[in-house]
Fold this protein.
Amino acid sequence: AAHIARIALWITDHQMNLEAHKRFRGDTRPTVPIKSSPHILQANALRANWQDFLPPAECSYIVGNPPFIGKKEQNAEQKEDLELLFSDVKGAGVLDYVTGWYIKAAHYIKANPAVHCAFVSTNSITQGEQVAVLWGELLRLGVHIQFAHRTFKWSNEGKGVAAVHCVIVGFALTPPTACTIFDYSDDIKGNPTKIAAAQINPYLVDAPMILLARRTAPIANGLTINYGSMPIDNGHLILSADEYKLAIREDKSNAALIRPYTGGDEFLNNIKRYCLWLVDASPATIRESAFATQRIKLVKSYREKSGRATTQKLALVPSQFGEIRQPKSAYLLLPKVSSETRRFMPIGFVNAKTIASGSALIIPKAKLFHFGVLSSSAHNAWMRAVCGRLESRYQYSAGIVYNNLPWPQGLSDKALQAIETAAQAVLDAREAYPDSSLADLYDPNTMPSVLTKAHQKLDKAVDAAYKYKGGKEDAPRVAFLFERYLALTSLLPTAPTKRRRVRVKE
């Protein structure tokens, strides 16, 4: 990396010499052959003392493309690097490696607030659980975001190098005279649109300076959301479609012990899976089934051999799922992970006989109103702005996305009816294609026009309920919802400010 940087800086120096010669029509100092090279320190950047290398008073800019290493991919030394930098910051264990450069830079420029910084980073530092941890500390240190490139797709020409979703964040300790957002909208491989902003918050939108902390309950109007049930069984309670057929062929009475089983992937792609569900089965019925008895013995053995004390305790009830959260009536299912290419995250109602797995989130007692709001462009824009990512896919979060969502308030019967009617129309449009999965229906290349129109009508009803009159793009919707969030969560009236508001909600 140091060698590449040395060559890159030399090439830039050479190009500028050629430009100077062209502009001023005079001689410049020769750059070929190379007689001097830039001063480069080969060291661990997160442990080196930047002030010893270059005094802040002599620095104008800090720019870089730090390593993209997620929390799970960091080695022991890299984890220790971040622990040293974030020793006093609660929850720092979730941070990507790149965040170390932000903290080092923020401390370095204290001695010279005129220095401006910019880093290319994975977009994870502006989404999900990392935002409150990293930017809570940066805002405390007085950092102001000056400009930002919102999510774009970047890759180099190296063999086997995967494309990553990046952002560029420019920041300083001085308040900006003007803020600029470069927005790529739906074309993250293309050229951005330049947007003037009053301010840029850590989610890279022109909105109040709010950090969304993980919540255990919705802020308003939302029903409780849970994960599906967790088997903790090493797969012995779960059946494929073929295994289900074999169990029924072995003994038809086994059908009473087996339920359909769905997670996000099964729900989106119409994949058939099943599970042994023995919550209501009598001991006598279970013992009569050789198939169930064999599976239960395997579960018991697995749990007894586990290194976790809680799993070992579950060996006392090997016929049951380890964690049971199955509703008694129909529920709304939200996949935890969904493709970033979809304009709408597909969700839907599931009957109580179908067991939801831990790869799905469920909302018991949900009505058409809840389905309508969560299927709208408003909620989907909110989700895209604040959720985490699994690779490039959206990773939905109960604590960050759902529980922080500002739902419409004070709805009239007419507004509620409009949402319910439009929500039902979306469900009806789906039913017109019984041979298509939700993945088929919501693929941007194959989404039927009748479903698109139904969603447009739903958006109109939900926007009216919010009293939202802005543009259809994500950015103005998210800015509006941040304002609604601030109004719902502020315990005391907040005096308006011209530029910067900071609210860290626990």
The longest helix spans residues 2-24.
